[in-house]
Amino acid sequence: MALSRELLKRLNSDDYPLPKRLKLAETAFYAEDLPLVRKEDLLLEWLCKICPTNEHSWKTLNNCLRSVYINITASMKQCLIDMLIQALNSNMENIYEDILKSCSLVLTNISMRQYFINKPKILGLLIKTLLNNISKHYSDLMQEDFNELSEPCKLSPLENDTVIDILESLMQIYKQMILTKDELRSIFIQDILYLVCSLVDHTNMDNTNRLGVAVYKCIQRLLLGKNRSVQTKETEESNQSMLSDLFCILSKHVETSSLRCNLLTYQFIFRSIIGTYKSDPILLDVFFRNLINSSGKYKWEILDSFLKLLNDIIFNFDNTVEGITLTEYFQNLINNILTHDNMISAHYGILIQLSYINPVLIENNISDILNKILIKEQTVYHTNLLIAILHASTKLRREQKFISQLLTSLKQQTTIKKTYKEDTTFFLDEFRIKLMKTISNFTSSQTITTIRTLVYYLNTDCAELLQSNTSCKNILLLKVTVELLTILFEGMQVFEYTRTLSAHEKFVNGLDEIGNALSLLINKALCLNHNKTVIIILLSAVQSLSEIQSMFKYYILKDPVTKKLPFPILDDPWQQLIQRITNFGEDNCKNIMNKLILYRLKIEISNKPIKLHGLIDGLEYSWSTILKHDTTMLSLLHDKEISKVTYLLLVDITSSEKNFHDWLHILDKEYLQENRRFIMYLLSHIFIQIGQSFSLPITEHISAKLLMENEYNNKLLEILQILKEQISQEHWLQMTNTISLKIELYLEIFLHLPTMYFSSNVKILIFLVVYSISRKYETNDKVSGLCNMIFSDLLEKAGIDVFQYIEPKILVNQLSQNKVFSKACEFSLRNVKTYATLKSFVKVCDQHKEIMCIILECMDAVRSKLDTEQKVIFRKAEKKLAKAILKILPEDINSDFDVRCLTAVLKVKFQTGKITDPLKQLTEVTLRNIFAITENSSKTNSKLLQQGILLSIIVLQHRKMFEIHTIIKNLWFVMLKHPYKNLIELLLVSNELKEFYELLKLLQDQTINSLIQKNETEWTNLFVVWSSIMKTDMNVKRNKMRLNVINNLFQTVLRLDVPTAYWSGLLHLSHDIISAKHLLIPDITIDLITLISLKSLDEANISSCEDVLAICRTLIKVKTDLIIDRLPNLLLLYRHTVNIIVHASKNITDKFDEHRFRCFALDVTKFTSMLVKLKKDMIRLGPYVIADLLQLIVEGTIPSYVKMAIHESLCQLISICDQHGLAFLSRTLPTSLQEVFKVQLNTFKKFYKYSGKI
């Protein structure tokens, strides 16, 4: 006792600084040889007193609480809890994280858990206070009320881990309780459930959300009583009784908590119920209804969220609860929704989900729903509900009746509501697309029925609307009928209605009736005042009918005499329409009328030039309509009219930026790109405009006819010669920016023309004109960039010899400024036949090191394509250029371009075999300067390093001529950081055995170090080196050496924590080892590769499957003898991979993922077929693999292509099983899988088993 008093006296003494006293307390707490009675109680009591007044003491308290088990009295435990609750309720901004750690340590401590077993109220109070504090802290941090549904909760890592610790501790304490379980469960529902659900990030509910998983498990354990043992019927009934008070508490919370809290809580509970009772639709139904009935004022929002969770859940709609079937329950909800005057988004969502879950539920309410929503504002919910009703009608085989119901409901509603938007379409694009897709699957009888329905409404209700000027004010029914008619024409499969004579005649009669109905409506409209909306609606209907009639002519039966389909508008009404639209019509009316005029011209005169004088406001008004909607008319226009269209296009396309981008999109269309006459006229107008801007009068003589003539047109050659003279004499005065804006647009248009189809002379003409532009705008970066892009397009295929039209001395000076010209230079050099031309090159570029180097590189690039005589004169020129470059090169080379020049010179010298000592010394010194020491090589300029690597490759190819032994080691250090495969292969050949071993050890050490330090870039680079080492053929000693080091590497990696992204390098290396030719692989290496593959599947999951399957296939194909004895290990890899693929395929979200899993499915099928070839060894193991695959095939929501791959694999495996194996499966499979196996076996016998018959 005296020692305790002395310790307390020192701890409470102000003579010592507080940090020193805290350190004393912590030391004493963990001192094992300190003879104090109730030492932990004494020290924790002192800390509990000092912590509320001093923020530094919390860290000491946490250090003391880290002990797994603390032997303290119950009163001390309660004191500690009271202190924590008091701290949580006070202002704790500076010690927030320390208190979270303290609470987490208290709840995870074994001794404290034992205390909480008999004190559930105290446990609940601590957890409730802590969760309240975390929620408040997050709201204050976000500076907003944390109630928005769309706002996810993003807790800090510490907060997230603390809440997870709370839940895991709660489950452990609940598991150990005997008498107080119900009390803790009630506290959890009342005080904890809502708080913890509101802290979860609801936007991410997969297994990566650790907090969400913890909440899910906690609800299953505390509310549903689920544990790891197998549940019996009795335990399920007891679990059901455990929920008797849950719904009562939930209904009370609904009245006091926000929508967000209620929605998240109900969703978590329902997810847990689904996970627990998914296979029991009766219990699932009971819980579902009870939850909905308890949801009070938020019933619709919660019901909407529940229905979205029923992805692969199968309900028993005939199940009865309290005398009401589930079907009746849902129908009562639908009727309730329809009684609301204003439907909210949740109402729409419920109706949408029910339409997809079970169309029968809304079958009797479709008309009522349409009456409710048709005239409402067009929103996403509105459109999605229409699509859902269409889906339900299709499933009920009443799709053609849907259109009739739509029009009937619309007719009823238009008599009540008189207003709507006339300037927009009634149906949104999403619904139109779905309806067209549905119509495309119509039978001929369904299509005829739909046509007759639309004809009926056109002849009756629509005609009634056009009786007088008053009645035609509300024409919504006419508008919707015409929209449906247009959708019908766009979606129907015309070819299907021409196969039989009866269907053909009915379809023709239907089109004729539509034409008569439209003719009647147009005549009525002409008797009234001009109404632009009515005219546009009717003309659009006529246009759609005309298009379908034209299409119908292509599929018309030749044998019978078919009824001719006339144009719907007679001559007199046609002329009246033209006159009225000319006088009163607006742009929309004129545009659609001109479309019809063009259509009539096209069908009356075919393949002959036509006259366009009948167009309203002439060609100047309708040229854009032709290009946008009817490009086939271009082939029927005169040359003069084509020229006018392209001129008007060029004027409009350069008038504004918006017009420019809109027209470029249209210009890229296939028909315009392939219309040679149109392109050439447009090109000629561009040349003329450029000539006017640049004072190039010669371009005014360029016409479309000239451009379209053959290659040997003398006039075009004369123009090229004149341009050549102008370019050679031009002094290139820079142009102003005002002109450059227009020039930029013309150059952009050049980029969108199909230059690859132009003749060589036209390409040269474009090249010379653009070259002139580039010289005049050398200081304008944008113009220069566009010119370079055009040069690249023109030079994409060799064929332009620019030396014929641009003097070499002019072009050579451009080489250093424009990389594009080097390609033109290469092609022109191939045509050089005399030394005089090359001599001019050498003379022009004398003293210009950069130009000489580029010319040498061009000569090297074309050398393989030269004949013998050309090679002689080229060699002479190369020698002179190399000699001239050497004279200019400095003695101390330290720039990347100087290294590039040295590399070009060495290539020439190696051909002649004349390497002088000064050149050798210069090369060796240069390499030493670049790769002097490892530390500096990482800081070297990247361009200099790249050129140094290229120089090293040349030197190593002729390493016998140089003394580079000291450089090779530094090169290896560079390769480990910046791997270059071509150089690595040469370095491996250059290394001695001892140096090779040292390299392997260094490589192993750096690989492990990069893994420990999590340096992904270095890890990736090192595995490029490893791959090169494995792909290089080596002798026996080196093979043994590299395999030993790799085995050590694999063994070390298996003991370390490997991040997900790092596994691909290991798997690729494993594949390279197995694929290596002439390599005897020891057993241990195969076993290590298997272990690496298994561990990668456990940690990297789906991202490793492709590589693991590749390893498995290669093992069977290349190392069959090694894998036979390890077939169980290989099958373990196979089953593990397939299992991962099947489960991951449930979460496919986009087309990229779909393609990826289709490839996986194909890989699985391929590997199974390879396994089957090992029939002798697989016959014993096959049944076990089949059992595993059967378990996977019953998974609920896997894609069809994955399921088909498993079916295919099963059939292949069944084919190698004998009768004993099949009988073994029939006896030992679980009852749930025996029926699946029988179906699979019958499928095999019916479709796969070879019967000997063809």
Kindly report the average pLDDT value: 82
Overall geometry comes to globular
Unreliable runs:
227-236
Q: In percent, how helical is the residue content? A: over 70%
Domain Nucleolar 27S pre-rRNA processing Urb2/Npa2 C-terminal: 1071-1253
Pfam family, one: Urb2
Structure description:
The protein is mainly alpha-helical. Among the domains are: 571-635; 671-800, no CATH class; 1113-1253. 71% of the residues lie in helices and 0% in strands. The chain has a two-stranded antiparallel ribbon. Strand 1 (320-321) and strand 2 form a beta hairpin. Helix 4 packs parallel to helix 6, helix 25 (501-526) runs antiparallel to helix 26 (532-554) and helix 47 (942-957) crosses helix 49. Mean pLDDT is 82; it is low at 227-236.
Short key terms for the protein model shown above:
single chain, mainly alpha, two-stranded antiparallel sheet, 63 helices
Give the SSE layout.
Blueprint: H1 2-12, H2 18-30, H3 39-50, H4 57-65, H5 74-89, H6 96-108, H7 110-117, H8 120-142, H9 157-176, H10 181-198, H11 210-222, H12 233-242, H13 246-256, H14 259-277, H15 281-293, H16 299-308, E1 320-321, E2 324-325, H17 326-338, H18 345-357, H19 366-373, H20 380-395, H21 399-414, H22 429-440, H23 444-465, H24 476-491, H25 501-526, H26 532-554, H27 571-584, H28 587-604, H29 619-629, H30 639-653, H31 657-667, H32 670-674, H33 676-694, H34 704-708, H35 714-729, H36 737-751, H37 760-776, H38 781-794, H39 808-815, H40 820-830, H41 835-844, H42 849-862, H43 868-888, H44 896-912, H45 917-930, H46 934-937, H47 942-957, H48 965-977, H49 981-990, H50 993-1012, H51 1016-1031, H52 1036-1054, H53 1063-1075, H54 1083-1099, H55 1105-1118, H56 1120-1123, H57 1127-1144, H58 1151-1172, H59 1175-1178, H60 1182-1193, H61 1200-1215, H62 1219-1228, H63 1231-1248
Antiparallel strand pairs: 1-2
Helix pairs in contact: 2-3, 2-4, 3-4, 3-5, 4-6, 5-6, 5-8, 6-9, 7-9, 8-10, 9-11, 10-11, 10-14, 11-14, 14-15, 14-16, 16-18, 18-20, 19-21, 20-21, 20-22, 21-23, 21-24, 22-24, 23-24, 23-25, 24-26, 25-26, 26-28, 28-29, 29-30, 30-33, 33-36, 35-37, 36-38, 37-38, 39-40, 39-41, 40-42, 41-43, ...
